[in-house]
Amino acid sequence: MTPDQHTPFLDDIPAYALGALDAEESAALEAHLATCASCRTELAEYRSLSESLLTAVPPKNPPAALRRRLQNRLPGAQKPVRPRWNWSFANMAMGTALALLLAMNVYSIVQVRSLQAVQTQLSRQYRTGQTILSMLSYPATQRLAINADKVVGSLLLDRDRNIVALIVWNMPQLQEDKTYQVWLVDPGGDRVSAGIFRPEGDQPYTTQIFWPQQSISNFVGIGVTVEPAGGSKQPTGARVFKVDF
Amino acid sequence: MTGIDEGQLISKIAQGDEQAFLTIYDRYAGRVHGLTLHMLGDSMLAEEATQDTFFKLWSRARDYLAERGPFLPWLLTIARRVALDRLRLEARRPVLSDSNDPETVWQTIPDHATVTEESRWRSLYFAVRALHPDQRKVIELAYYQGLSQSEIAEVLGWPLGTVKTRLRAGMEKLRGTWKEI
Residue ranges per domain, chain A? Predict the structure, then answer.
């Protein structure tokens, strides 16, 4: 290759070493370098120079804070972080909605259970009323008066179906730990429990139905006493009224 | 750890030794930051570029091969690429001024390189400053701002041939000085 052929490439080598050639010029020079050892030597010298230009810039210390920032981002400075709640507006809104939904569910369950209790009570009262009506209309039903001071009412005895019904007015209010207990009295004077009850609702009367396990024909009377909640094996409390059959 | 050989420090960094990394930082942060500030002309951008450069060192220390050359030029080559990327990202206008006072800066910042190397770099710096201003300007724009000769011609409003001539002449002078020092 003649010196004239080298010249354009030699002229480009300093700019190439600085990275200042355009793409086309770079491609042409690189093609030439592949075949020209003297140009490669020339380029090596200029590259050494350009590399040294990096070190020929005056040093300047960065602020101390930069070292701390760098150090804090190294793996050793990365402490495990416990997950924290991010109380963004969306999260708070979601949390509030969930809490509201939960409260509504609890309220609904309480309401349903309350309605079920009322329904059970009404159903029982309805059946009791129906039973008493049927007893009153039954020819063999024996009706006896209850009259003990303020407590008045009727006792219905259906000996055929072995049913006892009480319709009583003005039963005294009971404490929470007390209950009324019904006793059947046999000819020997012994008492057999027929059941317990508490007046329901705010009506001045109460109606109760009992189905004694033994035939009511075996008994000569009925009495009601105040007993501890849950009832007693034998009468222990004050007698409210007594009716002889 | 200051007495440990530089090659050993780089190997330790490659193995995740943070103390070795900080030792290298303390040794060369001034050089990296000096270069990025010279190229970017903005202290905040220069700090970010310096930080990025050392993060690249942290993650690429294993790429350094001592047999291919000294460590500092390798590190500064990374710093130059980081700064050039930042220049392109910011689409910043070329920085043409040099506000650093070489006399004070060179004397106040200790350099851990050998006396011979440091004196050569310092001599080269003064050789650059001794160039004709037009020659120095095209070399600065090409190397520290990443502009091609065509772009330099456009920025300075000079004919492309003039840019090429001044760049070549300046580089030839520097090469002559570089061989002598």
Answer: 3-56, 142-244
Residue B70 to residue B117: CA distance in whole angstroms = 11
- Secondary-structure class of domain A142-244 per CATH: mainly beta
Amino acid identity, position A71: Q
B109 at interface of A, judged by CB pairs closer than 8 A:
yes
Hey, what are A179's tokens?
Answer: 């209950």
| Fold topology of A3-56 | Arc Repressor Mutant, subunit A (1.10.10)
Distance, CA of B20 to CA of B12 (rounded, Å): 6
pLDDT, tens digit, 9 for 90 and up, residues A115-149: 887 787 777 777 777 788 888 888 888 898 998 88
Element (H, E) at A152: strand A151-158
Contact B170, B127 (CB under 8 A): no
A151-158 and A163-169 beta bridge pairing: antiparallel
Q: Say whether A142-244 and A3-56 share the same fold.
A: no
**Chain B: nearest CA to A84, how far in angstroms?**
28
The sheet that has A205-210: what strands, in order across it?
A142-148, A151-158, A163-169, A205-210
Q: How far is the C-alpha of A72 from the C-alpha of A63, rounded, in Å? A: 15
Write the residue in A46, A70, A76 that is nearest to B171 by C-beta.
A46
pTM, 2 dp: 0.57
* ipTM reported for the complex, 2 dp: 0.84
- Report d(CA A184, CA A186) in Å as an integer: 7
Q: Answer yes or no: do B139 and A18 touch at CB < 8 A.
A: yes
Residue of B nearest to A77 (CA): B18
Check the CA dihedral A115-A120-A122-A123 and report its sign. positive
Does B102 contact chain A (CB < 8 Å)? Answer: yes
User: Is B38 touching A (CB cutoff 8 A)?
Assistant: yes
